[in-house]
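Exercise 7. Predict the joint structure of the components listed below.
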Amino acid sequence: SAVISQKPSRDICQRGTSLTIQCQVDSQVTMMFWYRQQPGQSLTLIATANQGSEATYESGFVIDKFPISRPNLTFSTLTVSNMSPEDSSIYLCSVEDPGASSYNEQFFGPGTRLTVL
Amino acid sequence: EDQVTQSPEALRLQEGESSSLNCSYTVSGLRGLFWYRQDPGKGPEFLFTLYSAGEEKEKERLKATLTKKESFLHITAPKPEDSATYLCAVQRGFQKLVFGTGTRLLVSP
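Solution:
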């Protein structure tokens, strides 16, 4: 299965600032996803990032708040802009691994724990 | 709208006490049902994908089954290291995964 790393693993930020989270995969993948997991809640998809095209955002999430880059098939970034305490969450990158035994298995990175003061 | 409901929210077992976790779903055109394990402070760890009713998959002490309306994750003779949150998710077509809120499992020695 694909090995996914994220940077930073955690951060504490001041409100009004922005943080960029990096996601690196050890193999080329077509589809990458960004999820948010708020405290005590389950995962919610923010957007789907495909290389060579603009990210597709889910209802309730907008590009100005969560700009995403996907410069190649192994890397993506998610920026959380103009942060407020409500943005305190774990942000997770995932990929659909074409090399997996089943073609649509999704694997997750370790997450970035963000606290906004 | 696709919905996933997991029960119970929390489950406490004694070591060796077998039990089942439930995942009820509503989705048209199920592409797959996924089970993940999540430890505190970590990303979800993939366990199983089930594609059609009647399918079963096993991994160590875990066995996942699927019907047209729900999936069960059976845990046989659990150990303390099985303590985690177990997440269920469904995928319709080539769409996103829709997750349930999870079952927090605690296995006591």
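Discussion. Chain B touches chain A at residues 31-32, 34, 36, 41-46, 49, 51, 87, 89, 91, 96-97, 99-102 (CB under 8 Å).
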